[in-house]
Amino acid sequence: MARLAADEGLRERYEELCQTSAPLAASFDVLLEQAPLTRLRNALPAKGLIRRPPWRFTGIAFRELAAGLVIGVLAAGAAIWAASTFGLLDGREDWRTAIAEYTHLYTNETFSPLKPDAAQQAAELNAVGAMVGAKLTPENATLPDLRFASAFMLSYVGSPMGVRAYVDRSGAPVLLCILANGAPDAPTQSERRGDLPLAWWSRNGRSHLIIGHVSEEQAGALAQMIKKQV
Amino acid sequence: MSEASRREVRAGPESSLARLWRYALVLSKARDAAADLVQATCLLAIECADQFVPGTRIDRWLFAILRSIWLNEIRSQRIREGGGFVDAEDALISDGARELETNITASTVLRAIGGLSQTKRETILLVYAEGYSYAEAAAALGVPIGTIMRRLAAGRAALAKLK
Q1: ipTM score of the complex?
Q2: Per-residue exposure over B18-46, b if at least 16 CB sit within 10 Å of its own CB, e if not
Q3: Which residue from A56, A163, A223, B97 has the highest number of Cβ atoms inside 10 Å of its Cβ?
Q4: Using CB atoms and an 8 Å cut-off, which of residues 93-112 of chain B contact chain A?
Q5: Of B19, B40, B71, which is closest to A71 when you measure between CB atoms?
Q6: Is A20 on the interface with B (CB under 8 A)?
Q7: pLDDT (tens digit per residue) in A161-214
Q8: Where are the domains of chain B?
Q9: Which fold has domain B1-82?
């Protein structure tokens, strides 16, 4: 404000901006009066906890909405972790299918804008590690040729699932999912879902899955490296 | 999460319904779809109430949820060709002919805004109508501040053509 008072040119510019934007704001205000409030109020959920409603929003599966929430929240830098729901496959398909479908929703633009500093990385990884019972730090979360972008929480049929998201040089996402499901130890296995190779294993009551736009060889190598880290 | 915070999440959509619908309309340019989008937002907000950070602005949290749902809607359109939202040229046009200070009707301004891209429309709404600062808008939309300024300039330019 002091600059506005002292700088006549700046003040003129500011006043011009206010004047030119005023009709825009006023026009938008007219729309508020047209909101179908009765319909919107009637659509509000009744009191009481809602868990995994079976609805879809004009054809979008709820898990896609949840993915969007994660994207939006993370892109806005508004939260370290976000809970979501994977339990929508009615038990017909396994968690790898759910993750593969979910991963296909991510684009090169999803995680590449996220560049957390060391403190943010530590906070995110610590929060996720606490949820899945693993000690996660920036030091043991480093992967070759991949940049750490984010760590956040999802859930799969009631089990907490941590996700460490990385991007390669092009921004393509590579995810490590850690599902605290109490599964017995299992060796590394691999497969391909569409254009995405997967490598997964279980140890210490947690199942791990690496998935992303890497070669199958890279996925396997990353799995071996992560097994030593986690 | 405290009971007071849960109540805040419950009360948030109720007090923000009209503004949520306006944002949804600006994004979708389809009135029925906007209502559906608000409903989906409210449901997801309650489902994810534990994510709300008490003391922060719940209206902006709801806006972020709404936008995320919309982005996924756009993403899903590739598999729903012909079944998605249909842009209605007049969706943003006020049914009133309220005259603004500049002797331009709101309908005329909204029609001009409706001709802009979605990113410009929502940027103009957030900054000029919702009071986001440039920095807040940049953070919410995940773009640099310079991009925000260019989008706003486009809105003002569209308005200037009406004069």
Answers
A1: 0.79
A2: bbbbbbbbbbbbbbebbbbbbbbbbbbbb
A3: A163
A4: 94-96, 98, 100-102, 104, 106, 109-110
A5: B71
A6: yes
A7: 888 999 999 989 999 999 888 889 999 999 988 888 999 999 999 999 999 988
A8: 1-82, 98-158
A9: Rna Polymerase Sigma Factor; Chain: A (1.10.1740)
